[in-house]
UniProtKB/TrEMBL annotation:
Keywords: Lyase. One of its GO terms (molecular function) is lyase activity. It comes from Methanoculleus chikugoensis. Signal peptide: none annotated. Pfam families: Glyoxalase (PF00903). Residues 2-128 form the VOC domain. This is Lactoylglutathione lyase. The lineage of its organism: Archaea, Methanobacteriati, Methanobacteriota, Stenosarchaea group, Methanomicrobia.
Length: 130
């Protein structure tokens, strides 16, 4: 069994698509509209057939409450692996990304940082363990 799709709920799909591709560097995999619904997924440029991240509209009141609740409690909605958390922090900070947690070593050789994705979520990045 393997994970093929996961999601983050977003308050604006177009802004999310621009942020996740233009700022973070993901690649758009699908963008399909049907009956007022838009299915947008992005993938890592290093693994275009890998796990897809669905940028799902948060138009459900239960989803909105969940999203708001975890944001207010500073719980990241997703976690992405990077080669070097410090370098990625500097790259994203230079693009105007707002961080709620600067690079912090949490366990031996694991460094995390947390930023606001501009679409209602906190996202964690962490150094990939080798």
């Amino acid at each position: 069994m393997k994970i093929i799709l996961t999601r983050v709920f977003v308050d604006d799909q177009e802004r999310a698509l621009k942020f996740y591709t233009g700022t973070l560097g993901f690649v758009k995999k699908s963008d399909v509209s049907a009956e007022g619904y838009r299915w947008i997924t992005v993938v890592s440029p290093d693994d275009r057939n890998g796990t897809e991240l669905l940028l799902e509209q948060n138009d459900n009141p239960v989803v909105q409450a969940y999203q708001r609740g975890i944001f207010e409690q500073e719980i990241p909605a997703a976690s992405f692996g990077v080669e070097d958390t410090h370098a990625e922090y500097e790259r994203l900070k230079a693009q105007g990304v707002e961080f709620t947690l600067e690079p912090t070593e949490v366990v031996d050789q694991v460094t995390i940082a947390v930023f606001d994705d501009t679409c209602g979520n906190l996202i964690q990045i962490q150094t990939l363990q080798k």
